[in-house]
Write a sequence for this structure.
C-alpha cells in the first residue's frame, strides 16, 4: 500500500517546465488510453511517464533469454546476475523510451534552451523508471503481485475516469461487451485440460488422479498486457530513428501506422498478441522440459511413449490451446478496437471491454497468489 501511495504521488509530479495546458485540450485516443494502462500517466508528462513498461520489458527479455538457453543455463546463473542484467537492460530501455518521448514534449517559456529542457526531462523520466523498478522489485520480494498492483491501479483509475465522464446511455453497449468478455475470460481461466499421467512411484488409487493440468488459455491475459509494451517499444525505436534521420519518409510512414487509431496499427497489435500468446506459453510451460522430467522419473503420459513422442504430444496439445486462446483474444480485442475505428463509439468507451478483460485476468492472478499464501500460512506450524 505504501508503494502504491508513492506511485500515485509520483505520477502527479510534472516534468520540469512542461506545459500541461498544451495537453489538456488534446482528445484522448486509443493509443493514449492503452499506453496509460502501463504508465498511468494519460498525457505522459510526469516523472513516472514511462511507468512499468521498462521494468516489464527488461524482465521479460531477460527471462526469455534464460528460457531459450535452457534449464542447464538457468541452473548456473545466479539470481544476483539476473537482477544486474535486468537492471542494466531496464536502464537502456528507459533511456531509449525517454529520448523518444522527449521529442513530443511541450515546454513553457524558459531561459533554458529547449534541448536542455529535453535532456532534463529524459533524466527525470529515467530516474522515475528506476524508482518504479525498485518499488516493483521490493513488492515482488515482500508484497503480492510484483508489478501487477501498479498496472491494476492504472486500469481501475482509467475505468473510473471513463465511467465518470460518460453519460449512462453511452455506457449500455460497452457494458454488454464488458460482461461478455469477463464471462469468457472467467470460463477460459477455470477450464482445465487434464493430460493423464502414469506414475510408477504411486501404487494406489491416487495414481488414477495424476495428470498434467493445462488451462484453456495457458498463460492468461499476459500476452495482451505485454503486447502493449512491445507496440510502444516498437514505436519508440521507430521514433528514435526518425529523430536521427529526419528526412526519412519510410520511418514517418511506419511511425504513423503503428498506432491503435488506424487499421494497420490495430492489425499489428493483434498480431503481436497472437504471436506472444504462443511464444510465452512455450517458454513458460516448456513442454520439452516436462517430457524430460517425466522420462527421468520413469513416468509417462497414458498411451504415449516417453521421450520424443511425449514432447511432440505436449507441444501439439499446447499449440492447439494457444491458437484457440489467441484467436479468442484477438476476436475480443478486435471487436472493441474496430468499433473505435468505425466511429461507433469513442476510443475511451470502445476500450472499456478490453480493459475489463485485462482487469479480470490480473485480479484472478492476484487472488490465486493470495490463496497460495493463505494456505501456506495455515500449515506453517508444520514447517
Amino acid at each position: 500500500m505504501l508503494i502504491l501511495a508513492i506511485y500515485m504521488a509520483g505520477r502527479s509530479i510534472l516534468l520540469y517546465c512542461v506545459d500541461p495546458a498544451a495537453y489538456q485540450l488534446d482528445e484522448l485516443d486509443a493509443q493514449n488510453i492503452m499506453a496509460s494502462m502501463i504508465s498511468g500517466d494519460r498525457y505522459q508528462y510526469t516523472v513516472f511517464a514511462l511507468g512499468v513498461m521498462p521494468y516489464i520489458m527488461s524482465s521479460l527479455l531477460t527471462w526469455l533469454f534464460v528460457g531459450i538457453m535452457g534449464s542447464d543455463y538457468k541452473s548456473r546463473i545466479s539470481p544476483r546476475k539476473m537482477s544486474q542484467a535486468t537492471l542494466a537492460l531496464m536502464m537502456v530501455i528507459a533511456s531509449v523510451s525517454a529520448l523518444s518521448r522527449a521529442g513530443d514534449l511541450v515546454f513553457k517559456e524558459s531561459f533554458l534552451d529547449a534541448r536542455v529542457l529535453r535532456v532534463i526531462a529524459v533524466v527525470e523520466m529515467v530516474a522515475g523508471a528506476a524508482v518504479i523498478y525498485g518499488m516493483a522489485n521490493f513488492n515482488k520480494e515482500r508484497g503480492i503481485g510484483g508489478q501487477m498492483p501498479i498496472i491494476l491501479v492504472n486500469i481501475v483509475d482509467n475505468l473510473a475516469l471513463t465511467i465518470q465522464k460518460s453519460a449512462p446511455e453511452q455506457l449500455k453497449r460497452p457494458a454488454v461487451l464488458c460482461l461478455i468478455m469477463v464471462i469468457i475470460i472467467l470460463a477460459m481461466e477455470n477450464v482445465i485440460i487434464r493430460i493423464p499421467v502414469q506414475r510408477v512411484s504411486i501404487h494406489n488409487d491416487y495414481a488414477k488422479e495424476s495428470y498434467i493440468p493445462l488451462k484453456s488459455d495457458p498463460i492468461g491475459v499476459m500476452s495482451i498486457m505485454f503486447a502493449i509494451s512491445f507496440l510502444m517499444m516498437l514505436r519508440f525505436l521507430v521514433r528514435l530513428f526518425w529523430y536521427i534521420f529526419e528526412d526519412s519518409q519510410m520511418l514517418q510512414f511506419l511511425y504513423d501506422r503503428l498506432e491503435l487509431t488506424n487499421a494497420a496499427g490495430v492489425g499489428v497489435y493483434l498480431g503481436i498478441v497472437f504471436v506472444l500468446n504462443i511464444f510465452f506459453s512455450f517458454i513458460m510451460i516448456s513442454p520439452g522440459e516436462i517430457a524430460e522430467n517425466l522420462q527421468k522419473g520413469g513416468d509417462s503420459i497414458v498411451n504415449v511413449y516417453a521421450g520424443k513422442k511425449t514432447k511432440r504430444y505436449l507441444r501439439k496439445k499446447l499449440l492447439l490451446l494457444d491458437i484457440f486462446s489467441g484467436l479468442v483474444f484477438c476476436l475480443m480485442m478486435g471487436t472493441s478496437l474496430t468499433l473505435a475505428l468505425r466511429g461507433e463509439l469513442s476510443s475511451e468507451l470502445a476500450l472499456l471491454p478490453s480493459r475489463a478483460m485485462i482487469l479480470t485476468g490480473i485480479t484472478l492472478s492476484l487472488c490465486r497468489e493470495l490463496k497460495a499464501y493463505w494456505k501456506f500460512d495455515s500449515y506453517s506450524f508444520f514447517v
Summary: The longest helix spans residues 308-341. Strands lie at 192-198, 211-215, 300-301. The chain has a mean pLDDT of 82.
